[in-house]
Amino acid sequence: xxxxxxxxxxxxxxxxxxxxxxxxxxxxxxxxxxxxxxxxxxxxxxxxxxxxxxxxxxxxxxxxxxxxxxxxxxxxxxxxxxxxxxxxxxxxxxxxxxxxxxxxxxxxxxxxxxxxxxxxxxxxxxxxxxxxxxxxxxxxxxxxxxxxxxxxxxxxxxxxxxxxxxxxxxxxxxxxxxxxxxxxxxxxxxxxxxxxxxxxxxxxxxxxxxxxxxxxxxxxxxxxxxxxxxxxxxxxxxxxxxxxxxxxxxxxxxxxxxxxxxxxxxxxxxxxxxxxxx
Length: 278
Hints:
Elements: E1 2-5, H1 15-25, E2 29-31, E3 39-43, H2 53-59, H3 61-65, E4 77-78, E5 84-87, E6 95-101, E7 110-112, E8 115-117, E9 141-145, E10 151-153, H4 154-164, E11 175-176, E12 183-189, E13 195-201, E14 205-206, E15 222-226, E16 246-250, H5 251-257, H6 264-272
Antiparallel strand pairs: 1-3, 1-6, 2-3, 4-5, 5-6, 7-8, 9-10, 11-14, 12-13, 15-16
């Protein structure tokens, strides 16, 4: 349950207006999943106080929309049924309602070149696990077994599929990043042992977690990453443990992506990648 402030206009269809609300109110605002996706802003209970973020954002709705600003100086008042109201003009009857209601799941579709796009990464052809839902991790047994007949967790199977696809002449597999060459802003130590801003680039070959030797750098260890994160920015269940939503990347890049909306470049590259076979 969250508190929804009443936005003006039609940000579900008006992309520039939607961008204005996101710029003003931040991660509280998002598009919901279908069957009829809608754009709204939802707030936690602790943000719904007479002077909390939900109330102060509600006071700015008209201003952000581009209409005459609401009158200032009023605080949100509890109605008694869980909802709140906010007076926005000199007439006490001139008020808006802030409803307490279930917050829908954020759409898992990612906007790529203006088109809402489903993530369908390189593990899309692998059979799906039976335990599949938003917010679930890749640690469940998926019905597959290893060379010793032991049950494999989903993440271990994905790593094994990747490893098997990259065997050298000696028949020994290595793990390749599904986003090799991807660049992101990061920090590193310079020659004076000072932390400086720089640009990191995802390597092709990652350190295999099964390798008992310590990695050259712990950020190079291979991990299975949720492209659409398990949790959204409001800490609500979001991305599923579908194999389509999986990518093998370094720990460093995985940490960079944590709980952020997936960038369009990532989704474009993963969707265009050749599919692995079981």
